Amino acid sequence: MKTVAMALFPDFLLLDMAGPLEVFSIANRYLPAADHYQILTIGTEPGPLRASNGVVVQADLALGQAHAAYDLLLVPGGPGAYNECHPALLPWLQEAAPRARRFGSICTGAFVLGHAGLLDHHRVTTHWHYTERLIKAFPKAIVETDRIYLQDGRLITSGGVTAGIDLALSIVAQDHGKQVAVDVAKVLLVVMKRQGGQAQFSPMTAAVAPQETAITRVQQHVLDHLDQPFSIESMATLAGMSARHFARLFAKEVQMTPMAFLQGARIDRARQLLEATDLPLKTVAFHAGFGSVRHMRFLFSEKLGLNPTQYRQQFS
After folding, report:
1. Could you tell me if residue 256 is inside a domain?
2. End of a domain among 166, 198, 230?
3. Assigned domain for 306 exists
């Protein structure tokens, strides 16, 4: 029997807990009793804990009662993970994680592991909205921004919310074979392997900064005229600068090259049209400035891991 433990704290995200644990619970239906997962919740404090959606959960054990070496130790995300620091939980994790066969986080639970020093020098991921924050907070971690889940040795981390289900299915497949994991996925009406990564959910470009500069004026002009061709030279002309100076200043202000911004803006515009309209792919490609459906299809596959038709089917 394998033990799956989930460490809970105030303001955790309920789905980060419930999704993965449901995977292990359903897996027990397909396993002999000797191979069942024993599921435990561990609270940072005695008594009930309130999740971020207001639901109250009573943990099985408090930290002071949890001394076992678990087969899998997980930490959920939520506002309590990235906005708070839990002084009792961090030293407990520092002792419990090395004893666990595997340990990891769901969504922004990575911040808790980071504060415990457990992400350093490991490849990790988290919800796409928080990857930059994770990179800045824990520079010794190797953060990958487009992974649904990611295993690096004994450490396994996942992207946002429902990605915890993907993580748990991968563990079931490791422990008991792919067929058991497939059976669980069918019960949950989810796929075993998603098409694409987190990039399909996140915008390729950030919003234009509110303060007006020569660079933001060019950005806004590009966004307003995406159906037109642009080059670094033409954008530099709009800014009244040399191409070299413009490219250097743009990268400093926007944290990406002008052409990366343009490409990302075209992909984002195409995604908006695919989600909200029934326009033919040729028309979408024209309005987004790709020039051809073939070029749009190539960039979608390269950047998002799925083609425009697949994207429309998933999100419209």
Report:
1. yes
2. 198
3. yes
pTM of the model: 0.78
Closest to 270 (Cα-Cα) out of 295, 291, 289 = 289
Asked whether residue 203 is assigned to any structural domain, the reply reads: no
In a 3-state reduction of DSSP, which class is residue 287? helix
191 pLDDT exceeds 90?
Answer: no
Rg, C-alpha atoms of the chain = 23
Residue 76: half-sphere exposure toward Cβ, Cα within 13 Å: 30
Residue 242's CB is within 10 A of a number of other CB atoms, namely: 12
Strand 2-8 and strand 72-75: the pairing is parallel
Tokens of 222: 């590009």
* 125 closest CA partner among 154, 148, 102, 153: 148
CATH code of residue 218: 1.10.10.60
Q: Strand 56-58 and strand 2-8: pairing?
A: unpaired
Angstrom CA distances, 100 to 11, 46, 149, stand at 25, 23, 19
Q: Which 8-state DSSP code applies to residue 32?
A: -
Considering 115-119, 208-212, 268-272, the range whose residues carry the highest mean pLDDT is: 115-119
Q: Give the CATH number of the domain where residue 94 resides.
A: 3.40.50.880
Give residue 30's Cα distance to chain centre: 29
208 phi and psi angles, rounded to 5 deg? -65, 135
Orientation of helix 258-276 relative to helix 214-224, angle to 10°: 40
The confidence band for 316, taking pLDDT boundaries of 50, 70 and 90, is low
Residue with tokens 């504060």: 115
- Distance CA(265)–CA(168), nearest Å, equals 34
pLDDT above 70 as % of the chain: 98
d(CA 175, CA 2): 9
Instruction: Determine contact, residues 77/51, Cβ cutoff 8 Å.
Output: no
Element housing 165 (H / E): helix 163-176
Contacts of 4 (CB under 8 A, 6+ apart): 20, 21, 24, 37, 38, 39, 40, 70, 71, 72, 74
CA–CA separation, 188 and 237 (whole Å): 54
Name the residue among 315, 25, 10 with its Cα closest to residue 187.
25
